[in-house]
Amino acid sequence: MESARSATYHQRADAQLHALARALNLYEGFGCSFRDNALHVIRFGAEPGNETVTCAPRPSDQDRLWFWASDRTPIGEADKIQDSALALSARMPQKRP
CA angle, corner 59, sides to 91 and 10, nearest 5? Predict the structure, then answer.
């Protein structure tokens, strides 16, 4: 039973990461790629210039899927794609000349 639940979480997490990538593509200056079950986000001309995002259950939220930054900081609920894309873009502010 746990194996089936884990597979379901993995499939949903993968789908949510792809949806987040599509949402970020609407923002100017972002590039996304997938590697090692994670979304690698680059903001061109940004400081810091990149972030690795994973999608995993959040125990304090009844194991709902959340997006997590590489430092294990929660970004947003995986079911709230646009909110999470906005939160991630705010974590990666564009460098001003």
Answer: 80
Mean pLDDT, residues 39-64: 88
Beta-carbon-side half-sphere exposure of residue 30 (alpha carbons within 13 Å): 24
Residue-wise burial string across 25-37, b where 16 or more C-beta atoms lie within 10 A, e elsewhere: eeeeebebeeeee
- Which residue, 26, 25, 31, 27, is CA-closest to 43? 31
Say if residue 97 is preceded by a cis peptide, omega within 30 of 0: no
What DSSP state is assigned to residue 15?
H
Q: What is the DSSP letter of 25?
A: T
Quick one: how many helices (H) and strands (E) in the chain? 2, 5
Q: Which domains does the chain have, with CATH numbers?
A: 2-91 (3.30.920)
pTM of the model: 0.85
- What would the pLDDT profile of 55-70 be if each residue is shown by its tens digit? 999 999 999 999 999 9
| Length in residues, the chain | 97
